[in-house]
Amino acid sequence: MPPRPPQTSEASTATSPTARTGRAAARTDAPDAATARARVGRERRSPLRLPSLPRGRARRRETLLRLACLAPPLLLLGVLVLYPVLDVAWLSLTHSSLINPDPEFVGGRNYAEAFGDPQFRAVLLNSLVWTVVVVVAQFVLGMTAAVLLSKRFRGSAVLRVLVVVPWIMPGITAGLVWKMLEDPYLGPVNALLSGLGLVEGNPAWLGEESTSLYAVAVAAAWKGFPMSAVMYLAAYQGVPEELREAARMDGARPWQVFRHVTLPGMAPTIRVTLLLTTVWTFNSFDLIYVMTKGGPGVSSEVLSSFIYRTAFVDVNHGSAATYGMVSVTVLTVFSVFYLRQMRHTGGLR
Amino acid sequence: MRWPAHPRWLAAVRWRRRCRTAATALLALTLTAALASCAGGDDRDGSTLRVWLVEANIPQVAEGYDALVADFERRHPDVDVELTQVPYQQYRDKLVLAVQGGAGPDVMALDQIWSPEFAAAKLIEPLDRRTQRAGVREKDYFPAAWASNRWQGRIYGLPFNVGAWQRMFYNADLFREAGLDPDEPPRTWREWKRAAERIDKLPAHSGISLIGCRDEASSVLTDSFLYSAGGHLTRDGRADFDTPANRRAYGFFQRLAEHTPNGVAGACAEDTMAHFTAGETGMLLDGGWQSGSIGEQVSFDWRVTTPPSPTGRDFTGAMGGYNLAVGSEAPDKRLAFSFARLATASVPHQLATNDSVPALRKAGERFVREHRERPEQVLRLLETAEPRPVSPVYVRISRAQQGALQSILSGEDIGGALAEAERSMQQAIDRP
């Protein structure tokens, strides 16, 4: 029997939560402990850890090697991410346009103008409402679809393929389809709602300030929910059936099984999916552009469509960069806050 | 032979090999980036002429483009024409990015409303001397099309095609049903309002379809109301929007909008067209080029006429269309101008490369007589139409105008909306 490698402090850290969080955590942490052991084994076999080399020189060489390996990705990140962000940050402090392409430094004037403009504030609020409504709707629809698709029934495989169709449909096409569906006179939505006795007359969902944003949000939820459904379906199927069975045996009702067994098991996927859909929704505007062009007034304008219009139609680089920085800041703050919350509360439990 | 386990020299060799691999990877990365940036550089000579046109909607126009290119290459055997067709929806975005990146075309189609902006940005070449030398005459083109190229006293392009906003399409069956005579369509604003009211009273029908959404189409549509009432947007390079004539025009538009389908503030051209062709609305305002499309889609009796005007005044339309301009970075501007001239001054090429009215008067007249209902009305409209404000900040002026319309349609005070828009327009003019 080969000698067992001595347990390192890293390995003990990896296994320590097992005792605290019970069987489920033990299952999750087991691979980590194995990984840690494997790492120790690899490090022991590494030529750079040879006893024949002086210890300090070997460490220096290893550090250099690590830096050399890190350099290409760091270079790429610098060129592809850091430089553009810094450039946009600089542009946001300038004024330039197609007519005056040389940036003129204006300090914080673009920011002062943006936040002093009631239209921009309305757009910012719209963006938040739009994101929350669409993300929540996609979560609910996606989770419902995932639970339904996890059941075995005749045609379930075909249904799983069909459910992805909205997601692969180009945004422009989806926008045109939904615009037609929601037409006050020719669309089937009003016909259906009238048939159910829910509306009277021919409400123009896209043509009224009070409803336009929500009318587009319906289309966005429809277009985006398949991605959530696929993610949740995979996560749902990753939760062992034995756990659900055990809970049922203990007398848990279906909702309790879902709430206390399935949902916690899906928590990591839910967190990632919510974060992704939030970022995508906040940045998306193709449906809005096709369905309402941001109107009536600015009732359905969101930050991304506002940026597009300012950058490409008005060709006002400074203001567009300012709105872009606001957008990046909002998303960064949200992401950090969200991740910290999740880490603090330990997921959805 | 058996190697001793991990000798020092072997570790050193491995270390050197790893370093070399890392260095090679870095070098390759740097070289790739450098080569990629070199590939984007402009190393053209005058033997290739790059032309950008709006993508042909129909195969006949695409064939017309090919014939134009072939004819030009026949006349200039040592020149290759590289024609790029860009879909209309993406044209401005791509063009702006290309010219800003120094990779703009030598000859480009420009919407009339963009010409002054590109001229002010020095992205296109003034053509006064070349047009004079080549004998290109203003009177050979429809007046508003020529005027759209003139900025600060200089000419920056040659008119390629035109379209006058707008024509009034009406459903003769609904006219009859409402007790109106389809052979005597409304001529004045008063009669117009009355006709819209009567059709609106028919069950499940609306009087008229109007474009009200935040789009250039609503600007150019309301321009014709303003021009017909004697109004305007700018005067002598300054915003002049809150005027009695404009208030009258927008006041009438607001009253007429009472007879539109619900949601006029969100109605774009495709919505108004859908409502009209479905037989839902009695009248439609749109460009004359929609005749063919309407004819194909509807089964009811429909007619087209000049829209009504205020009592005692004639209807004045707003001009649209494209010009051809020469890029200021073109390596051989003489050659680029020759192409633009061939495309805009030759009757056969003007007819073959356009599915809208050619801007060259001779070709345009022939096209209208062959393809348009009531050609005399259309030709008169083209002669009297006015260009939209010829300003380098037109896009922002138009945005302010759209904002005013949205406010007016939501029931806000007309004077207040026009005054606010005038301020925004002036701000755009002062800080281009």
UniProtKB/TrEMBL annotation, chain B:
Gene3D superfamilies: Periplasmic binding protein-like II
Keyword match Signal: yes
Signal sequence, start to end: 1-36
CDD domains reported for this sequence: PBP2_TMBP_like
Matching Pfam families: SBP_bac_1
Transmembrane regions listed in the UniProt entry: none
PANTHER family per UniProt: ARABINOSE-BINDING PROTEIN-RELATED, DIACETYLCHITOBIOSE BINDING PROTEIN DASA
Protein name as annotated: ABC transporter substrate-binding protein
Native organism: Streptomyces oceani
Lineage of the organism: Bacteria, Bacillati, Actinomycetota, Actinomycetes, Kitasatosporales
